[in-house]
Amino acid sequence: MGKKALRFGRVAGMVLALAAAGAATGQQGGPATVNDQSLPDNTGLNIPQNLEIFGTVDPNVRKATAIVNDNVLTRTDVDQRVALIMAANNVKLPAEEIDRLRLQVLRQLIDEVLQIQQAKTADITITDAELNQSFDRIATNFNRTPEQFRTFLREQGSSERSIRRQIEGELAWQRYLRRRIEPFVNVGEEEVKAILDRLKAAQGTEEFHLNEIYLSATPDKTEQVYGAARQLIGEIQKGQAPFGYFARNFSEASTRGVNGDLGWVRGAQLPAELSEAAAQMQVGQVVGPVPVPGGFSILYLVDKRQVLTANPRDAKLSLKQMTIKFPRGTTQAQASQRTATFASTLTKLQGCGSVERVAATINAEVVQNDAIRIRDLPAPLQEIMLNLQVGQASPPFGNPEEGVRTLVLCGRDDTSSAQLPGTEQIQNQLEQQRVNLRAQQALRDLRRDAIVEYR
Asked: Where is the PpiC domain (predicted)?
């Protein structure tokens, strides 16, 4: 197949919905027709209602090789970055999901190249010393030495080169923003004062910390996108990867760059459909697809609180954890029997002082931690610990592979009433929001003006 040169801004966006539904993909030869008089033209491009699509519309026809303003991206670059993402998120995906991820990664790599190129126009270059320092820090986050991390990357099908280029792209873009955008972002005192006044007026109002995946849907594709969203929710609920992984790779909202994080929002700030859904959610719950104007949203509730009111999830707990382990080869029946005995034994606890004695009778391990915040526990345990009294134990939880456990509450330090944020804090938040907005605009301009050749 010959080269196909395109202006990047004309390349179609998210393909998840169509790919998952199998709509309009894989067609060979012949024209496809669309005849729907009910669709309004909201694009400003004067696209005719009755149109013909000539040739194939399979996005995979474009091989995962591209030249971005003379900078070559190879199939190996894409595959190594895909392997890096899967290793970092400790996730294994089916073949069709990997194909979709590969398309998304190619777009991310193109953005990365554009960001590095733009930074160089401002005489910004990331040195080898800076790359080495960041690489070593990431290796530490993976609990490995730099050399062990290099070996790990190779074993996963990735490479040091791939992660160093990602580091270079992030550092170069951040430095470019600080030099060319941040100096021109200003926040006035009156804006800060207005926000403080609104916070005072909203004291006691419920707020939600939400993550979102947004999928657009034109009227003729509603059913296909809905089905794709349901499929995506099924993958999320398997728990093989965090919600942020799916948001970053599949959401069409601008928040995908921050793993779909909407931050703290009040119901009045959300579309009515999302506000109603959030009000009924429990922390840690995923809901959707929620119909919203233009498509569907999938929501994940990270936390909730009341404005300027102490959050019980910020309370620090003193805990003792009892754990029973199961020998290799334990049958399901044997595990169930021992777990039942464990649960029965917990009724004999007489406060935290008796934990070690009771644990010895069933050969359970005991560990203690005196500074665990409720919000740092898994969501199901948060709800349990919020209602537990000092000296009581949680119901048993866990699995035969890693052990079955209980948490015994030995003490709780509740937080004091929340305070108004300071003027400087609000100003910094506003400035960062505006920098992020201008950064998105700058990247859109770079995409529009770039020459990208797919081979």
From this structure: 205-303
Determine the Cα–Cα distance for residues 259 and 250; give it in Å rounded to an integer. 10
What gap in Å lies between CA 246 and CA 237, rounded to an integer? Answer: 11
- Please list the residues that pair with 367 across neighbouring strands: 321
- Nearest Cα to Cα of residue 160 among 181, 142, 146: 146
Q: Which two tokens stand for residue 122?
A: 């401002």
Identity of residue 85 = I
CB atoms within 10 A of CB 107: 15
333 three-state secondary structure: helix
Tokens of 281: 């959610």
Question: Which tens digit of pLDDT belongs to each residue from 287-341?
Answer: 989 999 899 999 999 988 887 777 788 889 999 999 999 988 888 888 888 899 9
- Whole-angstrom distance, CA of residue 383 vs CA of residue 159: 42
Same domain assignment for residues 155 and 252: no
What 37-40 contacts at long range (C-beta under 8 Å, 24+ apart), as own/partner pairs, is 38/219, 39/218, 39/219, 39/220
Q: Which residues contact 432 (CB under 8 A, 6 or more apart)?
A: none
- Three-class SS state of 407: strand
180 has pLDDT over 80: yes
Same domain for 372 and 350?
Answer: yes
Instruction: Note the pTM of the prediction, 2 decimals.
Output: 0.56
What tokens appear for 210 in the block?
Answer: 């939400």
Q: Using one digit for the tens of pLDDT, what is the confidence trace for 81-90? A: 999 888 887 7
Q: Which domain holds residue 362?
A: 312-413
Radius of gyration of the chain (CA): 26
In this prediction, residue 60 carries a pLDDT of 42
State whether 294 and 235 are in the same domain: yes
